[in-house]
Amino acid sequence: MTVMLLYGSLMFVFQMPSRRETNKEMTTPQLLEKLQAVFPELTAMPHQDSLCRLLKNMDVEQIETFYIDMLRRLRRSFKTCCTTSGIL
Fold first, then answer.
1. Are 42 and 36 in contact (CB under 8 A)?
2. Are 10 and 74 contacting, i.e. CB atoms less than 8 angstroms apart?
3. How many Cα neighbours within 13 Å face the side chain of 41?
4. What would the pLDDT profile of 28-83 be if each residue is shown by its tens digit?
5. Can you give the three-state secondary structure of the chain, one letter per residue?
6. In degrees rounded to 5, what are phi and psi of residue 28?
């Protein structure tokens, strides 16, 4: 679930014009490698149609809850990364 919402968030942030373009641009090995540093359970990027089906069947409050949890996890991961690398 976290991976799917992250993927949807990145699509929004990068302002991808279409699902086809998103699948093409956001499934590169370089992006996958960087995301695996934060989300080790990520083995492959989901297909955009899978995200669309998931979001159609989810309740808005459920999406919000998962999204907030994902942001908290990203923040903790970022703090850990910066602390261990000496940035903070």
1. yes
2. no
3. 5
4. 888 888 878 777 777 887 777 887 888 888 888 888 888 888 888 888 877 766 56
5. CHHHHHHHHHHHHCCCCCHHHHHHHCCCHHHHHHHHHHCCCCCCCCCHHHHHHHHHHCCHHHHHHHHHHHHHHHHHHHHHHHHHHCCC
6. -75, 150
Spatial distance between the Cα atoms of 81 and 78, rounded to a whole number of angstroms: 5
How far is 34 from 66, CA to CA, in rounded Å? 21
Q: Are 26 and 16 spatial neighbours (Cβ–Cβ below 8 Å)?
A: yes
Structure tokens at 28: 């590169």
| Residue position matching structure tokens 């919402």 | 5
